């Protein structure tokens, strides 16, 4: 018997404020495991359960194409007095992989009859019955003159993305504003297997990011008066499941690469990097094969080599330099014992604020010197949020600290601390004649 692990985080509403002593019930039934397994858990002061071990299918089911289920399933019930019960059906457990489930519990309103929220996680696209991607140009252009394009100098890495959970023509489908990094993790957790080689995960992650950024910067849907940036329909976009579990192996890659995109010569936008599974659907020229990327990684190919194999040798991997929430810029080097200066003060101030909700994190003097206490604070933070526990504030840790700081702070605290003001960007094609459209709100630095 093989096993995977599961860790559950519980938060207040749509924030990163943890809920302590949440009652958690994990139920693994006989359908995808040898026996029914019920475990009762509780969250600690960081809103996290202990890591538990659960049965998983043979590794062979997920490392080669198969019609056998590559994961086992469990249901999760999260309960806190004063909050709606949250039931998550179909959390996926892969062999040798840590599954991570975020549970955002909503307070019960005084006049609400519905006291339960339910999330259902559907099958992975490699196995499930999803419509094939309808081919389109890799180089879609907005329906406006080039003079109206959003220039690269104004590109912001999104803080959030509005996802339409259905086909673009399905007016009954729900729209959800998702954290951009969570969106990427959800897509990858639904589109590929998390126990593939890291270079295959990196290649697929870069393709997924480039595709999403193309939809945003070409204003593909917003220019058509749609109130969303992208859909979850595999016929036109990428599969995404609202509220689903993610996996540590995928999360680590996204946290490192979430600003990446693919650049193609003579094209003004990130490449619309289309892909198929490569087994059930034949891979057109210029598209990535998901299973093919896995097999290339097995042979030692790097993520960049895999992407060039499928999207042509003239592509380049680029990074967006400006954040949508205008987080103070990463200094360009890891902060470690002995580091000094303003970047260290930013880390110390942010972690001290986060520690008010996460008491396991020790508070530091805000002196701009990274000593043993600040190192311990960074290391504790990394352990809570599933980052490698190095005690060094690298690129991924810097931006994760920013994410959590924003998630536990009021907008007033955030804008005051980083000298930011709220600005609104309107798609340029609409500026002349329609104020009633989807806009991008972001925070801009003022000096």
From TrEMBL:
Domain Peptidoglycan binding-like: residue ranges: 340-400
Superkingdom as given in the UniProt entry: Bacteria
Domain Sporulation stage II protein D amidase enhancer LytB N-terminal intervals: 179-235
The name this protein goes by in its record: Peptidoglycan-binding domain 1 protein
């Amino acid at each position: 018997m093989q096993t995977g692990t599961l860790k559950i985080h519980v938060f207040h509403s749509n924030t990163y404020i943890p809920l302590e002593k949440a009652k958690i019930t994990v139920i693994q039934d006989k359908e995808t495991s040898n026996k029914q397994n019920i475990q009762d858990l509780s969250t600690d002061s960081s809103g996290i359960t202990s890591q538990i071990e659960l049965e998983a299918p043979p590794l062979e089911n997920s490392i080669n194409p198969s019609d056998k289920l590559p994961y086992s399933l469990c249901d999760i019930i999260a309960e806190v007095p004063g909050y709606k019960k949250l039931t998550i059906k179909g959390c996926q457990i892969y062999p040798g992989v840590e599954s991570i489930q975020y549970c955002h519990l909503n307070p019960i309103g005084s006049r609400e009859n519905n006291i339960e929220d339910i999330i259902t996680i559907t099958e992975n696209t490699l196995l499930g019955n999803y419509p094939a991607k309808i081919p389109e140009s890799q180089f879609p252009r907005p329906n406006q003159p080039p003079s109206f394009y959003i220039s690269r100098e104004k590109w912001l890495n999104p803080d959030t993305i509005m996802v339409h959970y259905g086909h673009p023509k399905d007016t009954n489908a729900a729209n959800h504003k998702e954290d951009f990094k969570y969106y990427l993790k959800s897509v990858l957790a639904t589109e590929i297997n998390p126990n593939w080689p890291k270079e295959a995960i990196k290649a697929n992650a870069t393709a997924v990011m480039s595709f999403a950024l193309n939809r945003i910067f070409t204003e593909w849907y917003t220019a058509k008066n749609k109130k969303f940036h992208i859909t979850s329909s595999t016929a036109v976009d990428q599969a995404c499941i609202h509220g689903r579990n993610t996996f540590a192996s995928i999360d680590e890659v996204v946290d490192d690469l979430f600003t990446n995109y693919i650049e193609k010569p003579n094209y003004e936008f990130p490449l619309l990097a289309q892909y198929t599974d490569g087994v059930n659907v034949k891979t057109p020229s210029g598209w990535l094969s998901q299973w093919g990327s896995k097999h290339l990684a097995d042979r030692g190919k790097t993520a960049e080599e895999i992407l060039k194999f499928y999207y042509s040798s003239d592509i380049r991997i680029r990074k967006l330099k400006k954040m949508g929430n205008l987080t103070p810029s990463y200094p360009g080097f890891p902060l470690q014992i002995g580091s000094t200066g303003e970047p260290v003060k930013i880390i110390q101030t942010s972690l001290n604020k986060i520690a008010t909700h996460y008491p396991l994190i020790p508070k530091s003097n805000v002196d701009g010197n990274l000593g043993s206490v600040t190192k311990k604070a960074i290391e504790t933070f990394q352990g809570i949020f599933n980052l490698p526990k190095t005690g060094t504030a690298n690129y991924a840790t810097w931006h994760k600290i920013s994410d959590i700081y924003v998630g536990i702070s009021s907008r007033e605290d955030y804008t005051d601390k980083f000298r930011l003001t709220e600005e609104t960007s309107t798609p340029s094609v609409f500026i002349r004649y329609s104020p009633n459209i989807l806009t991008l709100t972001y925070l801009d630095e003022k000096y």
